[in-house]
Structures are given as C-alpha cells and as structure tokens.
UniProtKB/TrEMBL annotation:
Reactions accelerated catalytically: Hydrolysis of terminal non-reducing alpha-L-arabinofuranoside residues in alpha-L-arabinosides
GO molecular function, one term: alpha-L-arabinofuranosidase activity
Gene3D superfamilies to which the protein is assigned, alphabetical: Galactose-binding domain-like (2.60.120.260), Glycosidases (3.20.20.80), Golgi alpha-mannosidase II (2.60.40.1180)
Secretion signal, residue range per the UniProt entry: 1-19
EC number: 3.2.1.55
Designated name of the protein: non-reducing end alpha-L-arabinofuranosidase
Protein keywords: Glycoprotein, Hydrolase, Signal
Family: Belongs to the glycosyl hydrolase 51 family.
Domain of life: Bacteria
GO biological process, one term: L-arabinose metabolic process
A Pfam family hit: ASD1_dom
InterPro entries: Alpha-L-AF_C, ASD1_cat, GH, Glyco_hydro_b, Glycosyl_Hydrolase_51
Organism lineage: Bacteria, Pseudomonadati, Bacteroidota, Chitinophagia, Chitinophagales
Domain Alpha-L-arabinofuranosidase C-terminal stretches: 460-646
Amino acid sequence: MKQNVTFFIFLLLSLGAIAQNKTFVVGVNRPGAAVSPTMYGVFFEDINMGADGGIYAELVKNRSFEFFKPLMGWKVEQHNFREGAVLVLNRKEKNTANPRFLQITLDHNSKEDLSLTNEGFRGMGIKKGLRYDFSFLYATAAPGIKLYVELLDRDNKIMGATTVTLSASGTVWKKRAVSFVATQTEEKGRLRISFEGDGKIDLDMISLFPSDTWKGRKGGMRADMVQLLADMKPGFIRFPGGCIVEGFDLSQRYQWKKTIGPVEERQLIINRWNFEFPQRAAPDYFQTFGLGFFEYFQLAEDIGAEPLPILNCGMACQFNSAELVPLDQLDPYIQDALDLIEFANGPATSKWGKIRADMGHPQPFHLKMMGVGNENWGPQYLARLRLFQKAIKARYPEFKIIASSGTDPDGKRFEYLNDSLRKLKVDFIDEHYYRPPQWFFSNAARYDQYPRTQTKVFAGEYASHPKVAPEKKNNWLAALSEAAFLTGLERNADVVGMASYAPLFAHVDGWQWAPDLIWVDNLNVFGTPDYYVQKLFSLNKGTKIIPLTMDHKPVTGQDSLYASAVWDEPAKELVIKVVNALPKTQTVALSLEGLKKQRITGKVTRLQSDDLYRTNSIKTPRAVYPVETQLELSGKQPALQLAPYSFNIIRIPY
C-alpha cells in the first residue's frame, strides 16, 4: 500500500491538480496522418527458453548429443553394467554441423539391461489421448535390434509406449519414425528408450514431437503459443533477437545460413543466456535451430505479419567482449544480408531462392525490411552501418533499414546516434526502453516534438519494469503505464512506425529475464496484463490519427488521463483509447466535432483492476482480462465514465 501512495503522490505532483470539468474534443472531421499497418508487432528472442523448450515443440533435450556435455539431459541405466556399452563418437571431419552420435553395444541384452532416459526441457508436457511422433537416425549391421519407447510420469509409471524393430543398414544412416498415443496427462514427463538384441547400433537426432503442433506441421511449433501471437494480429514479427544476434563474441553470433536446410544439418551453438546472468544460469540452454530463419518467415506468413530479421553487423556484444570485424573484412557479413534478401524474395531459379523452394516454399516471402545490428553504438557502429546501407540500397533501393540507437532512450550515447542516424537518413531508428512505470507515464508526450522527417522511430523493445521483489513481475501497474505511453506513440503515428514489447516468451521454470509478455509451462500458456494492452492496441490501431485534446492540449497526463484517437476506415468507426491512472472513477465529456448524432451507440472494451499489483498466472490466467460492454450515450457532449485504474477502448460507428 505504501508503494501505491508513493506512486500517486508522484503522479499528482508531476501532472498537476485534478480538474473539475474535463472535456475531450475529438476532431472527427479532421483526420490526420496514416497509422502504419505495421504499427504494433511482436519481438521474438530465444531467451527464457523461448525457442528450445518453448515455442519449438521438440520434447527431447540434447537430441543430437552436441551440448558441451554430450549426455546432458540423458540418464544411462544398466542392470548388468558393462564398460563401454554406451559411447559418444565424433565424426567432425565428416560432419562439422552435427559431429557427435551415440554408439550402443548390446551383448544379448534383454529389455531390462540397458536404457536411456531423457528428462526433456524442465520435464516433458504430455497430454492424454494425444499422438506423439518419435523419430531417430540409426545405422547398424545387426538386424533385429528392438527399441522399447516409453513415456514415463513423475512416478515412473508408463503412460504410452511403442516398439521399434530395426533392419540392418550397414554404415548408411536411416531414419525411423513411429507414433503412439499417451494415456495420461503429465507436466513433468520423461522419455525412456530400452534396448534388446545383440550387436552395435549408432543413434542420432532422437526426437519426440506432439502431433498438435501449429497447423499440424511435423517438427513444428507449439500451437497454443503461436495462437496467442495470431490473436494479436501483429503487423510484424522481429526475429531472432535481441542480444543473441550479437553473441558474447563473434563466434557465438547468430548466423542465419546455419539455421536453414534439413534440421540434422543445422549447427547447434550455445545460447548466450546460458551464462549471461550467474544468478539465473541455465547450463543446458543451447540453440538447436530447429526453429530457424525459414520457420521464422513461415510463422510471419502464417499470422499475417511482416517479417523483420535482425542481422549481425560485424560487432559482438559491446557489454561483453566488444569484438569487432575490421572494416576491410566486413564483406561476408554484408553478403549475408544480401543473400538473406534473395533467400526471402528471390525466384526459385536463384541460388538462395532455390534453397527456399527446396524447403517447401517456392513463392517469395516478400521481405521489405531488415535490422542491421542490435543495441550497437559508437562511431564503429556507424562506420559498419554505412557499408551495409550502401550495399543494400544499391541493389534494393526501396528496402527499409532499421538502425540501432544503443541501449538507452536518452543520454549522450543516444543523442550522438540519433543525430548521426538522421543525417544518414536511415529508414528507422530502433529505440529501446526498459524503465520503471513512472518513466512510461512521464514520457507519453515523448514524440510530440520529434522531427517529422523520412526517418521514423521503431520502438523495438519496450517494457515497464516495476520494482517488486524478488523479480520484476508483469503487474497491472506496469501494463497501465505502457498503455499510457502507447497513446503517445499512436498520437504520433507519423513519427513512430512500429512498436513491440520485449521479451516475448518466458518459461516459468526456465526464465532468465523478467518481466515478459507471455508465460508458459510445459502444458499451459497465458498472457500477462501487458499482453492484453499490446493486443488491444493492435486490434484497434485504426488507419488515420484523429486529433484529441483537453483544454487545447494533447491528453498526456493531465488529471492522470492519457488518450488518443484514430479513424478505422474499413470498419467506419471512431476509436478512442483512454487511460485513467487514478484510484477513482473520472467522468469525461465527449465533444465529437463533425459528428451530429445526439445519441451515440457503440462498445467499450475495458482492461481494469483495483489492485495495481495484480498479476495473471497459470492458475489465474484472466485475473486481468478485457471486458466488452455496449455503449449508449446521449446529448451534445455525452459523459463517459472511466473506471479507476483502467484502460478503455471506445468504438463509435460513424
């Protein structure tokens, strides 16, 4: 309660006394600049087990034995112990992308003699009645070896099983796949493989997928996680990050060409969030790239979003190693950017377009923009950006380039980059804001005085960070402050062309960074209050700005109110967004210029909680959730009731 009081003292002192009469003057007959179709999107980074163990539906951890500890995630059990029965072999000279495999030697083994058990990513989420697809690569000269495949619950009870009998293949690797149905639901399941027979067998790419992936694609994504993204109808999806683009050093940077083609040929690397925060270390966090650039493009297409890839610009993380590629050695990095555009857009007869077509997508993905670097700064960044800009624009003049403004939204570093990037006439400047709720309330007018030039703003990573121990949680105060800030972005849609919250996903048992937009466990997924704020802005973004003022000024915190308005041309509706940040109901009169109706009907969608520290959770996923009601107002200046601590969207047919 003390934090509540302190927060509102701050609001009242900084925003002025409460006015008695409040009227929103809405210039319905004076539509302004267009709102970009890409205004609100999503930012994906493989942090918090976002890809492996998250949206990528693979249930087996370390399926190809390429982790630093080759058997991490696996438990070998032998009833009659025999040294050397299970070996990890390395064929690096023959296969640099996937060098390790497992060799098992059986000596007239029965089923009980030897088994491998995989723990999954903090367990395996198993659903009763669902089909599971098990597959693996193998080579053996010994026919008749049997694999007993079993799903186990946390008490070692079998809850689904199948048997695979192998034929001889010599030294040629073959793939086997088999499916079976689970008989029980379990959040912390495991996979056990037992062996029966005589002889040697080589194993690799041991895999288990649920059948209910997004669009039923084998080896695909968790449908429930993708559905929450699709429900937002995002204008874009930014990928693959984030800090993983840079890498701790350049050897760990993200290289898109190593993430396409057959999954068994994609080269695993360590995830930088494996060790970035010692207090949240995740030694089993790697990137298998089962979710690679092809899948990112496909996902964007599926949910109707523009793809926005971010590429390394020859600079590693400046907080960690600050490693640079000399300018005279930057050509391969620039070529990667040009090749990516060809991969996405080129005809099936081109080199990289053919690879896309061979992966099952002969039509182009229509890539229009790209980020060069992530949270990079300084003259060294500008020197590299210029070379990328020159090469890309020479070949693709209309292609949009997003440039980094560093890590903070103010200060000398930001000012230097902001000025320099505008002189370079880059298409978008990527601004990041991880700040307390007070910052977001106070910056609702941030872009009111920004220059209206060809260089636009991309609010590429934003999140309100409430100071609540032991970790920063996605509470209603944070979401309400973001809603207030987003009214300022919307009011300045001629300056701000894109915005996305970050990070996107977090696993409740495997996170490194909080807060996050969407949280999951192995069976469930829920949106935070912040998710519903971003979703409501996205679903109600409109097509043109409508001026909205109170006392002849934009509504940027007067009386703790924040507001914006847009015209939704296809729906022929006026859309007003209002935040009431006070703990009491406020009444606002609407003066709708150009709208002569004496009686107004429409609808109101309200996101509200009396408790600023309320959160959603696995058990209470809709503690803070939008509620829609009908709107009926009358009079020349009808009164609008705004509930305490509320974000409101009013849609009025026009």
